[in-house]
Backbone:
């Protein structure tokens, strides 16, 4: 199993550009989520999904879109990048999202918006 | 609103000694889970230990144990016999019902030889 994979590992964008961060898992997990990690802060939940076709907002959803067309993939879209979105982004998955599940995290994507 | 607070931004400990990392949280929920995650310089998030709120017994995992005080909403992590490989950021996290995790701001632990 590859676990949770994220691409790209690094990305530099200009203000106003759009891009998609890719996340995939091969563990047949229903629950997937996106976090951002800023210096001096913990991970903050952006969006999550409890299964294909179902998504919901987390703590900091503004400026980001998600969709879940398959169980395996959960891409995160930045519609119009802003410097405030400079961060490290983590994707995670677990069987159902319950506290009894173990969350598996991807290696992260470091995004810089100039 | 659910909040998780880690008041120690950075700590140091000598190899083989014991260190305790603090975490407090705020919630009106009764049934929830608490976690400690480790993030080494590789950035990989690794689950260290999990505590279920309705269990009074403190969780332990080898050299890692917690002191869970539900009434005080406190959840500290004790690392015994510290090793160089324990050097990392440690995050306290909380989930109630399911789906939404809340993380603290982290404590950077430096284990010195």
Residues:
């Amino acid at each position: 199993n590859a676990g949770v994979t994220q691409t790209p590992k690094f990305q530099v964008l200009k203000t106003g550009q759009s891009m998609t961060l890719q996340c995939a898992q091969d563990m047949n997990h229903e629950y997937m989520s996106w976090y951002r990690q800023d210096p001096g802060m913990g991970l903050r939940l952006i969006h999550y999904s409890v299964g294909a076709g179902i998504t919901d907002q987390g703590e900091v959803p503004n400026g980001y879109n998600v969709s879940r067309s398959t169980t395996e993939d959960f891409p995160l879209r930045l519609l119009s990048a802003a410097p405030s979105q400079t961060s490290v982004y983590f994707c995670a998955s677990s069987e159902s999202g319950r506290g009894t599940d173990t969350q598996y995290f991807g290696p992260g994507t470091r995004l810089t918006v100039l | 609103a659910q909040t998780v607070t880690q008041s120690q931004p950075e700590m140091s400990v000598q190899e083989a000694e014991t260190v305790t990392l603090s975490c407090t949280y705020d919630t009106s929920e009764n049934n929830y889970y608490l976690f400690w995650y480790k993030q080494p310089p590789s950035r990989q998030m690794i689950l260290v230990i999990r505590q279920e709120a309705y269990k009074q017994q403190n969780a332990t995992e080898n050299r890692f144990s917690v002191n869970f005080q539900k009434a005080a909403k406190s959840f500290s992590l004790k690392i015994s016999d510290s090793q160089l490989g324990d050097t990392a950021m440690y995050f306290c996290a909380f989930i109630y019902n399911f789906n939404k995790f809340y993380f603290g701001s982290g404590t950077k632990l430096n284990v010195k030889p």
Summary: Residues 71 and 98 of chain B are 22 Å apart (CA to CA). Chain B has no helices and twelve strands. Chain B has a mean pLDDT of 93.
